[in-house]
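WARN no homologs supplied; continuing
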Amino acid sequence: MKLATFRREGSERIGVVDTGGAMLFDLTAAAERDDPADRRFDSMLALIDADDAGLDAARALLDKRGGEPDLSIRLAGAELLAPLPQPRQMRDGMSFETHILQSARGGRALAALAVGGESAFRAAMAEPLGDLPAVYRKLPIYYITNRMTVRGPDTTVRWPRYSKVMDYELELGVVTRRTRADIPVGEARGHIFGYTIFNDFSARDIQSLEMEGRLGPAKGKSFDGGNVLGPWIVTPDEIGDPQNLGVEVRVNGQMRSRGRTAGMLFSFEQILAHASRDETIHAGEFFGSGTVGNCCGLELGRFLEHGDVIELEVDNIGVLRNKVERQA
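OK structure emitted
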């Protein structure tokens, strides 16, 4: 199933997306009609907490009431929100070798730009890539990001006034289920509720400065609207092989890069097992894969401009679309 969070008649609801028919079935309204005491469809977190029983109930509601016309709306006219508007936690990784190497070169090029201008920037971007630091093969690398700044598809991201370099990052992400610590790798797949797209918007100039402190990104990543999820969550039975999905980035309708999710240094299962060592991972958390190679401006030397519309597409999920605007 493709599960969305949306706003209808002034209230936040969850629903099942039929991309073929371009319709959205209102699970929340269907549950209220079927059994007003059933609270499993009040929010995406409530559905995640209900686990398999909740998903089975969702399928049963769709079978029973999917033909009732007032319970479905046209997808094109729906006000989609982030499918998980406030995750219980958000972690983001660095899982793709190409991105790690090229973004490091891009960071050096940004530093050169500040000192030597455009020619120095281009010269730095033409330098050969270095070797992958050994730590990236030893263990999954990730940081905890701001779960309170999540936005959804078709929102306008108002760029922070303290930054001049606007960038995007195309990532695959998973939402967890079944709260537990010390998850074995062999059981970790059962802790994945579904998959979604993550645009990890990045204030690159500030991030580059912060990283000199060797503590990790803060204001380079954490600003209102900086974490965008969507357009919906796809359950594992419909995703296919998450390690072999095609991706594409478009800016103002023009293709900027293509890639695949193949080649993660650590799988999501390995990342979950590592993160859960002596630490409880809760249902309803989000884990980002890190940027797919070539799928951010820092790697290409091309950043976003005021008014740009950025589209991130991932096979078997859909398109996550946003606009960026500078503030006065």
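The two ends are 41 Å apart (CA to CA).
OK
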